[in-house]
Amino acid sequence: MATLLRKIGLIRLHNRDTEDPKHHHNHRGGGGGQQSASLRGKGGGKSGGHKQQQQQQQQQQHPGGAGDASPGPGKGKSKRAAELAARDKQPQPAAGAAGAAGAGGPRERAAGARAGPGPAVAGAAVGGSLVPAARQQHCTQVRSRRLMKELQDIARLSDRFISVELVNESLFDWNVKLHQVDKDSVLWQDMKETNTEFILLNLTFPDNFPFSPPFMRVLSPRLENGYVLDGGAICMELLTPRGWSSAYTVEAVMRQFAASLVKGQGRICRKAGKSKKSFSRKEAEATFKSLVKTHEKYGWVTPPVSDG
């Protein structure tokens, strides 16, 4: 009996050892797979929970959504636009007219360029000087006030030395009548003999008068000598830019001219044909420019005969 039992046990051991190894491997692998699957399931559950917590934290920090977690091209552009908008909203310090024009973001600069300069800028000082339109208006006002005062002073002269008529009602273009010269002069004698009541002159005042001299010429009668040249131009230093002073009045200039006529032995031209020829403005201007150039070269002395 014992022998039989031992044989049965040996047979079982032999069968167990001689079974298909794949079967044993699958059996052991299946158990191990289940165990590893179980372990992976637990690990995966923990990992998944950890990731879920991270996503929730990111969503709380960036309420913009899950798409904000990883920056892409769209987010880069939106971020740049936000920065530009924030910079535009920041106040810019004012640093004069030029600083105000260049301050601000691109939106303000574009709006300023479209709007153009306002009325305050147009009338403002630029680099310490007025803009051309305002400067011209200022010069016109100064010239007008000065000439109005000159007219009033001449009208109050008691000796009626000179009188003034406006040419075409223009305040800046005068015809001046010189009624008196030295009564002991030959010029005064000529005036009496020819029934000449006055010597007529024309004065035109430039835009920057009284800081520049008027242009003055003789109209009639036709004179010889007395520093009266071709076209009726007058050779007087005080009528040149170098010799002029804004303190000179029209009355003072005319008195100086009357004295120069007598000093230069001026006479009324009585030559046949030539006496009736009138002076022209164009000729007077050309003569005056020539004499100024000559005197600038040699000074206000008698120039050489070769220079006329």
Descriptive account of the structure:
This protein is of the alpha+beta class and 308 residues long. It has helices at residues 2-17, 21-61, 73-89, 96-102, 106-115, 119-122, 132-155, 186-193, 250-263, 281-298, and strands at residues 125-126, 129-130, 162-166, 173-178, 199-204, 215-220, 223-224, 267-268. It has a four-stranded antiparallel beta sheet with strand order 3-4-5-6, with helices on one face. A hairpin with a 2-residue loop joins strand 1 and strand 2 (129-130). The longest helix has 41 residues, at 21-61.
Observed structural traits:
single chain; 308 residues; alpha+beta; four-stranded antiparallel sheet; two-stranded antiparallel sheet; rod-shaped; disordered C terminus
Shape: rod-shaped
Order of helices and strands: HHHHHHEEHEEHEEEHEH
What is the spatial order of strands in the main beta sheet?
A: 3-4-5-6
Helical element count?
Answer: 10
What is the rounded Rg?
55 Å
N-to-C span: 174 Å
The helix content is: 40-55%
Q: Uncertain spans, ≥5 residues at pLDDT below 50?
A: 22-39, 41-47, 64-74, 93-104, 110-127, 303-308
Number of strands: 8
